[in-house]
Design goal:
The complex is a heterodimer of chains A (737) and B (51). Chain A has 737 residues and is of the alpha/beta class. Chain A contains 31 helices and 23 strands. Chain A has 3 domains: 2-288, no CATH class; 317-584, tm_1862 like domain (pyruvate-formate lyase- activating enzyme); 616-724, no CATH class. Classes of the chains: A alpha/beta (737), B mainly alpha (51). The interface between A and B is large, with 58 and 26 residues.
Amino acid sequence: MRVSLVFPPQGHFTQPYLSLPSLAAYLRAETDAEVSLIDANIESYDHFLSRDRLALSLERVRAADRLRELDARPALSFSDMASFQRFSEIDLIGESVVEGIEEAKRVLRTPELFYDYERYLWAGRTVEQGLRLFSAEFAPTVLSAHGFVTRYRVERSDEVIAALTDEAANPYIEYFHDHVLPRLQREDPDLIGISVTFASQAIPALTLAKAIKEWKPEVHITVGGGLLAYVGDKLARREELWSLIDSMVLLEGERPLAELVEVVAGQRELSDVANVLYRDKASGEVITNPQRDPLDIKTLPTPDFDGMPLEKYLSPELVLPLAITRGCYWGKCVFCTLYTVIGPGYRGRGIEQTVEDIRALKEKYGTRHFYMVIEDLPPNMAKALPDAILEANLDIDWWCDARLEHEAFTEEVCEQLYESGCRRMAFGYESSSERVLEAMCKGIDPQKSMELVHRVRKVGISVTLYVMVGFPTETLAEARQTLATLLENRDSIQEVSVRVFYLDETSEIFRRREEFDIAEIYPDPDADLQVYYDFRTSSGMTRVEARRAYLEFTEALRSHFPVFQNTNMLYHELKSHYFLYLAKFEGWDELRANVLEAPRKGSIAEASAVRRRGGLVRRELSFDRSEVDRVLGQTDSEAVRPRYQSDIWTAEDLRTLDRETAPLQPQPSTLVYDAASGEVHCFSPAAAEVLERCDGTLTPAQVADHFPSEVRADAIECVRTLSSLGLLEQNVEEVVR
Amino acid sequence: MKDEERKSDEPEPEPKALESDEAAARAKRVVFKIVPANPKNTFNFEDVADK
């Protein structure tokens, strides 16, 4: 019996996910099946971000020559601006990204290069630009480090099904056919399990299932994972689904998968596998088997990463995920669905087992970096876990999520946590309003929470706070108070993850919505897979006001928190990159002083000539690209309509925006790409002229002489800006006046 | 006469104003602006959450 487990795109690329190794460990321990693992997520990134594949994208995008056509227009509509933004960047940087992409991946995978912050920033930018170049081939599809969004909405099963055959929008049709299918054909499995955790995996997962069924209709395909706990039963109503898959596992997959092995071997009936949903072949009826109590996770083996392509993750050192609990011990927050859907039944792995897991994984895979995949570190482990890690001399770095348990995380406990290698903790703070926290059933006091934040920070652990805006009944004043509190305490908070409240149909608040002044909900009649609903409250902020408040938050956070400033990739690439930097520099203070705020770039001497650096690529445009960025940046798709997975405009949105947005008139600008840093700048014509005159023969004053006397001081300031951006060479010889 | 001649030799107040307007207009046209060209313009702050 051969089983292939696949983690389909699209997730993150910095570390392996835990689902396949957990399932593989259980199957290898409990069955005779030969289990192979395919992380098609990282494999597809590695392929898409390759020199040859990006060269092909560039060729295909260039062939359409969209930029020339857009640039020649008398004015740009809103939708033109979106295209103009995309194609003007690619026209400028395409070749450099194709040439640099392999080196960028090498930088991210090599410790000596990764921790050189300038190299890291270049590599991170190049990878992002590579994804944008690849996406442009499939526009308006956007494939990013955090998602995969197409014009097909994942809340509608008819659109999901339509995406499976649209090669112009879905890059995975070609990818799976050319790269994953041949491997599966070699392995020739009897059972294939596809793990779907995120909405961004829905279309790729079914695209893969379709390719497999076209090759081998008789192979049993089962899909499982977090997403299906929410939408599985809805998706099951779609007739076409049953030509793509044979069964669906709801909730935890270990035991159902082991029993499916027996089903495929003819030793068990499908009707006898708990937590499975399938279509009865005779009657055509969709059957949902009964649920069984979740497994005691103390009985589970250590996750088994054998067969995962561990060398391919875009990270210099392996960070392994490890679940030491499942479910949430608190389980009361009314907005949360983890305890209502995914994990009824909180279970712990136990301290001794956790220590053994870490020791075993560390020895086997040679890494000392761990991400504890838990909803919240329980109070009874807050002291016991670090004590045990120290006692066992594990010598690791790790991070996890936790609740703001003021009593549990004493100063002594926090010190032990740091000593044991804990470098980052992420807490659900949500709001600084006692009223709002009480309505949420968070069970925390905002003042005590902030005291704890200071305590954790004091020992050197980086603090991340999750914050929510727009909880029903929350007023704008309450939201702004939360923001003010974050800003006041910014020396102790390193990261803030803010999101707008979503009304999830499986949450407690949805069930009791009248108590929260939710007067009306607006289901989308065509969205048969809808989980989140637009709604109206009779008190507090409206949805649009909440979205505006969110934008206020993001703007303020960007201005005041070092991690969010400029183009700080550490934050952007999140997960293991920021954590690895914290581990390398042994905490936030050193990281901030030595890396984030270390002086770099150049300065100018008045008596010296200024020369622009080599490797600058310039492109003159008929329209002001900075204005295009501004208009597109301020037009917020979520404010138009809350969506399950959005960030893309529908055709209807675009028609409205084209009508309502003033067309952009021509106003020249110049895009400048710095191949050394990977940065792209937009210059006004005068600034471009200053750059042109920085040819190594003129001093800053002489560069400015070209301009009217009223603006010469501005021109000299512009030279300084060029220098601070690293666009000028240093140490050019002094000019004799 | 002489007074009149002297008067006519003096710079007219009106053209002076025009000249400063022109300078202001020239200065307005000459803007030294350099900004990051950022397709997304923002980080997605929701992405910190472990998804």
